[in-house]
Amino acid sequence: MPEDSIEHIDFENLNDKAISKPLVSHIYTADPSAHYFNGRIYIYPSHDIESDIPFDDLGSHFAMEDYHVLSLDNVNSEAIDHGVALHVNDVAWAEKQMWAPDAAHKNGKYYLYFPAKKADGIFQIGVAVSDNPTGPFKPQPEAIKGSYSIDPAVYEDEDGSYYIYFGGIWGGQLQKYRDNVYSSENELPKPEENALLPIVAKLTDDLLEFAEEPKEIKIVDEHGNLILEGDNDRRFFEASWLHKHNGKYYFSYSTGDTHFICYAIGDNPYGPFTYGGRILEPVVGWTSHHSICQVDNKWYLFYHDSSLSKGITHLRSVKMAEIEHQEDGHIKTLSPYSS
Description:
This protein has one helix at residues 11-17; strands at 28-37, 40-48, 66-72, 80-87, 102-106, 109-117, 123-130, 138-139, 153-156, 162-166, 177-178, 181-182, 199-202, 215-216, 219-220, 238-245, 248-254, 261-266, 273-280, 291-295, 298-305, 317-323. By secondary structure, the chain is mostly beta strands. The strands form 6 sheets. Strands 15-19-18-17-16 form a 5-stranded mixed beta sheet, with no helix packed on it. A 4-stranded antiparallel beta sheet has the order 1-2-3-4, with no helix packed on it. The chain has a 4-stranded antiparallel beta sheet with strand order 5-6-7-8, with no helix packed on it. The radius of gyration is 18 Å and the shape is globular.
């Protein structure tokens, strides 16, 4: 539910109808990246904070400064907040706006990937390393070479390869790039032109750098045509995620200003991905951002809304709900509120 539609919401009634409750309520959390490491659920969210920065379309009021890690014994247990895992003051190259992160695990090491703005106002993506899934994480001295924009999501494929997906328009600055090169003169395509596409790159064996030049991921309709910029209900905006089910790769993402979580299906991590439908209908608050994680042969959607803050769009709360892959390969659409 976009912010301009929340003025008359009965939040007590809405929370009663919600299909899930906030996993924690002592802090505001958003953009949950969930992983099942060593038999335990770990969630790597943004940490929302109060801000007196005026609202704008670039998300300047999302002024997050650090990351907390949450964990659960199982899907029915209470979440534990493990405290600050990384703060912007510890990142030499970053100045502000520690937005949506993700994590990966390899050979006993844990890697936290995060976007942040440098002093010049440009987003890059960094990585920090820990011996523990809850941190604390030690950041690399520089951002990942060749990285840009926001919303990193790392996928470990069955052959041991790791891929990082990223990109977001508007405040995420993806519209300023063409062929991985920034220009302040670049803007969004026209509505009748092809929409901007998310980006993918394979990671090096140490998971600290790109192993190749980043590539665009094609999202196409049922006829094989690229989604157009004016197709706001289906085009990519931000919040990449990848999971695999029954041999198919599912690339999911947020449509941003239309507030859907959608998915597209492909045969390899690079795509192309054919649009498949919606996973989640709009939530309270402007943003929608998610992850998908398998736990004990069931699949769960981790997402957020702003119901706990009564609709304040930059004060969000992480939630989770089971999702269903249907026999035809499509994912059943969830409504975040039961009626």
